[in-house]
Amino acid sequence: MLRLTLAQMRRSASRLAAAGVAIAIGAAFVAATLLAGDVITRATYDSIAARYAEADLVVAPPLHSTFSPNDLLTVADTQGVADSVGLTSVFLALSGEGRTVWQGALPLTSLTFMPLELSEGAWPQGASQIALPADTAERLNVSVGDTIGVDSWAIDTAESLRDELTVVGIVGDPLGAYTQTGGRAVMAADALTERAAAEGGRVAYTEILLMLADDARAADVRATLTTLLPEGTQVLTPHEHAAVVAATITDGQNVVFYVFVLSFAAIALMVAGLVISNTFQVLVAQRTKTLALLRAVGAGKRQVAFSVVLEATLLGVISSLIGVAVGAGLGQLALALASGGSGVAASLPTYIALTWQVVAIPVIAGLVVTLMAALVPARAATRVAPLAALRPEAAPTIEKGSAGRVRLVVSVLLMLAGFAALAGGAWLGTAQGDSRANAAMGLLAGITGGFLSFVGVALSGVFWMPLVIRLAGRLAGLTGPTARLAAANMQRNPRRSAATATALLIGVTLVTMMSTGAASARASMDAAFDSFYPIDMAIEAGTNEALPAEVMASIMGTAGVGNMAQVTNVIATIDVSARDYLTMTVAAVDPTAARAALNDTALVDGLTAGVIAFPSSVAAGWEVSSGDAITLRGPTGEVELTALVTGGQGLWTPIVTPDDLAAVGFSAAPNTLWLSLDSLSAIGRLHDVIADSNLPLASQGSALERAEYETVINTALGVVVGLLAVAVVIALIGVANTLSLSVLERRRESATLRAIGVTRGQLRGMLAVEGALIAGVGAVTGISLGLVYGWAGSLAALGVMGEVALSVPWRDVALVAMIALGAGLVASVAPGRSAVRPSPVAALGTE
Amino acid sequence: MDTTVFSPAATTPAVHARSLTKVYGKGAAQVRALDALSVDFEAARFTAIMGPSGSGKSTLMHLLAGLDSATGGQAYIGATEVTGLTDRDLTLLRRTRVGFVFQQFNLLPMFTAAQNITLPLELAGQRVDRQWFGQLTTTLGLTDRLNHRPAEMSGGQQQRVAIARALIARPDVVFADEPTGNLDSRSGAQVLSFLRRSVRELGRTIIMVTHDPAAAAYADRVILLADGRIAGEITEPTPESVLAGLDALRSYEDAEATEVQF
Fold it and tell me: Which of A468, A493, A548, A588 would be A661's cystine partner, CB 3.0–4.6 Å?
């Protein structure tokens, strides 16, 4: 039987190869994930171990607590301890050249405990020296010998203080001890402790490192310290400790990482399973005659089934191994490319570690998927009657069998329950209860519902996909006989066409869902950001100053600045009711200019002369409501204004028109500018303009913050879509496979068509239409479904943030549709070539 | 032949070959399937080509129909030299001027009988002549089968659909390759009489390859082939005269004839 199986595999090598590629991609995905996880763990471990440099022992505090300076003294006084240091990181706000950088700093005591190395200059001494990591020095644009500012806030007066520090050295981190946490500057231990204490920070040590005296025994010191220090203290060697810490970090992070990435690998494998199942069904159909002959000469049902299963096993193992090799190769390549870089990348290991798990897990996963996919075809193989060997024409049409009532019932139930839960989740998410519990419930319901309904949709593809394909075929058939032939061909094996389209549907749905969700998130966040951060950037001269016209002109002339509104901020007194008055900042601005410069124009909607506009956030605090009479008092008089509560909430001042302000005697000369920015690069240039003006101008703005959020969303989306794209690629391989199998089955028919006057071009065109139809149906249904899921998911997840803007990522949708259609067409090229190869004479021959 | 509805000008033959030669293989393995064969097939006539296996009868048909390329000589359909056409021109020629009837019927399983019949016109982008379609299907006894798919029809019915498909575009000539090879004798006889009727009543030209003397007897003329050459000709054949002709062929070239087995 083995010899027979191998012989059959050799005959179907090219068809198996296509299925093998699908499995190999899935296995490579899993292998690469495991390798990446391992690299993360090792990098974490190495960097933690590096932090302890040469220490003999590490003393770790009980869980969730730290050591006090007294504990440090206890350790230092313990017999057998030659030297000790408490590890602490103090964060400093360093500023230079208009930029502020938050930088962690290490205290410098004994160099023995210092994992950092001096690459330039000297170690800092005294209260006013500091050594900086190279990239921080670069960001602050300083080098050895320059001075930088350090801001602090006195605990008692909450006053901001600025001291100067001299940069005396540049430090490097060759062991990667702190590369994952932003690097560390170094200051003299006393200076740093003082600085921390001045800010009210209790000095706390996360760990204490110690060196043993030459004659001391580690075990004795361990025992002594455990009794002297608070209960729960652990005394470990650096490697033991690194292992413990790495485990706590990676148990959290790595599990999330594995679950996250492996779920994409699972999707890829699932799609691969569909492709393989299809391939085997066709192989069995093609071998009907051989199988029947085997049965006729005495092969048992089990032997026939065994042969198919054996074939699947061989295919699964071989392609999974290839996948592992590819995954490992890619992983090593990625490491090699990354290790050339700096920062986090510099601390990565040089080589991937091929453990047995990295090989075994993907191979097992690939094998299991292949076997599961081959089960149904194997059963079909046993149903071939020995009699079939005697029939003159073995028409390969075994796909008549009903798709199973169980499947129908299960998938319908899944879809009903799933979509109901999804709708419930969307409703809960947007419900105005604004309780967090509601939102969490909504999200949970949405995720569960989405998962269940999608499984239902994919399972029931066999039932509804043929209908969609028929409809699409009918539409395509209107274009001419070639398309009509193609449409008719797809009806012959509706289940196979359906399975192929379903495989594509899965990937396309997920990709569309993610980009729809992200587009909706982006749109919703935009609305939220606009409301929270109504001004990209504001430049203020102070309430009693005025902005010189030439400064305003040069600000307006700065490249990247969009619109500008001139604003006058004054401290005024307003009567909010007959008995109550407030002294507060009031902004005056021309409504038209403000509308152009603000992100959230709701702030000035309805603002005209005689109106004072209160952002809803301000109005709520002072119990002002629309229509209230408000008196604005100025140096020379007062004016009666009508209150208007606007929808805006990102600004904390009421707004009036400049005329009303001038009417009560304030100078209406602008002292503040509201700017909208077209480009973030304008921020740097504006800082230059401010510096050049030699005026004490303050700037504040949300543009940078906002851009950072957007970058995070875009990056995350890019990663997710990239991971999902693997599933789409596998599905497209499936399309090509299905087409080439159909071509092989239809040799005689193709020849007949050629004989009765179909040109080679028409025959190729027919296959192209078939490929495009399958891919098109998969893409269109996938996109529609993805939009529904994306929207429902956005409602469930983002409802808590406020108004959800549902948007369609047209660019992404068009891209997905074009890739699918294009790939469908490309997939038909090779089968098309083999379809036109046989001469029409083949139609006349018997077999 | 006095029942002929059409009286074609018997000047140019519908199909003819001049010194047609086909050689397969090279060197020692060389087989001369057709050896400078010249033959005329008259229009509106039903001609059968007979001969033992390997006599070159299938090769002759393939070359005449432009399905295969000749090593030498010329084949003509009407005045068109088939042997000189490109693949594309051959395809267009087959679409409009040649019809085929195959041993395996070769209907497209996903189409109904009516769709199968009109397929060549559809491919050519031509309108279906309803009257001609009605006449064909009535003559072939297919009127109540038009909405059936091939799988729902008997072999004889399928072959009649195939004949209708071959005739729908009113081709200059229909080639039939062992049209009764897959049929029982009763269905076979039906198909053959339909072929004859389409010649006598509808004025079509049919060239049929067969090895069955009974089938050949339905033709107006039988051409006997042996060894890639014309070995004889029988007009107004009967099964007996065809058998006699074949026997003569066998004794004439004894060694090869006994070698040939079915």
Answer: A588
Residue A536 burial (C-beta neighbours within 10 Å; 0-12, 13-18, 19+):
buried
Nearest CA-CA partner of A297 in A389, A396, A391? A389
The verdict on ipTM greater than 0.85 is no
Alpha carbon B74 to its chain's center: 19
What tens digit of pLDDT does each residue of A30-46 get? 888 888 777 777 777 77
CA dihedral of residues A747, A750, A755, A758 (deg, nearest 10): -160
d(CA B51, CA B44) in angstroms, rounded, equals 23
Cross-chain residue pair A757–B123, CB shorter than 8 Å = yes
CA angle, A149 as apex, A143 and A150 as ends, to 5°?
120
Cα separation, A486 vs A15, in Å, equals 22
Task: Please check whether residue A225 is in contact with residue A78, taking contact to mean a CB–CB distance below 8 angstroms.
Answer: yes
Is B27 in the A-facing interface, judged by CB distances under 8 Å? no
Domain residue extents for chain A = 1-35+253-398, 57-237, 461-533+703-847, 535-701
How many C-beta atoms surround the C-beta of residue A18 within 10 A?
18
- Asked if the Cβ–Cβ distance from B123 to A481 is below 8 Å, we say yes
Contact A424, A418 (CB under 8 A): no
- Classify A89 as helix, strand or coil: coil
Tokens of B240: 């007996």
Q: Which of A97, A120, A98 is nearest to A172 (CA)?
A: A120
Decide: helix, strand or coil at residue A161. Answer: strand
Does the distance separating the beta carbons of A760 and B87 come in below 8 Å? yes
Beta-bridged to residue B24, according to DSSP, are B31
Q: Give me the tens of pLDDT residue by residue for chain B, a chain 262 residues long.
A: 444 444 444 557 889 999 999 888 887 778 888 888 999 999 999 999 998 888 888 889 888 988 888 888 999 998 889 888 888 888 888 888 888 888 888 888 888 899 889 888 888 888 888 998 998 898 888 889 899 988 888 888 998 999 999 989 888 899 998 888 888 888 889 889 988 988 888 888 999 998 888 899 999 999 999 888 888 888 888 888 888 888 887 765 554 444 444 4
- Strands of A491-610, DSSP E: 537-540, 561-575, 581-589
Query: By the 8 A CB rule, do B228 and B243 touch?
Result: no
Contact between A356 and A309 (Cβ < 8 Å): no
Question: Contact A22/A730 with Cβ under 8 angstroms?
Answer: yes
What angle separates helix A461-477 from helix A494-532, to the nearest 10 degrees?
Answer: 90
d(CA A54, CA A85): 12
CATH number of this structure's domain A535-701 = 2.40.40.20
**Among A162, A195, A204, A198, residue whose Cα is nearest residue A91:** A195
Q: Do A565 and A674 touch, CB atoms closer than 8 A?
A: yes
The span from the CA of A143 to the CA of B57, in Å, is: 96
Tell me, yes or no, if B122 comes closer than 8 A to chain A by beta carbon.
yes
pLDDT of A392: 47
> Closest residue of B to A755, CA-based?
B94
Mutate to test the interface with A, among B64, B86, B89, B110 (most CBs of A within 10 A): B110
Contacts of A193 (CB under 8 A, 6+ apart): A88, A107, A203
Question: Residue B164 corresponds to which tokens in the numbers above?
Answer: 């209708």
Q: Are strands B221-226 and B46-50 parallel, antiparallel or unpaired?
A: parallel
Question: Domains in chain B, please, with CATH?
Answer: 42-70+85-259 (3.40.50.300)
Torsion angle, CA of A92/A95/A96/A98, rounded to 10 degrees? 160
Q: Test A846 with B104 for CB contact under 8 angstroms.
A: yes
Taking CA–CA distances from B92, the nearest residue in chain A reads A757
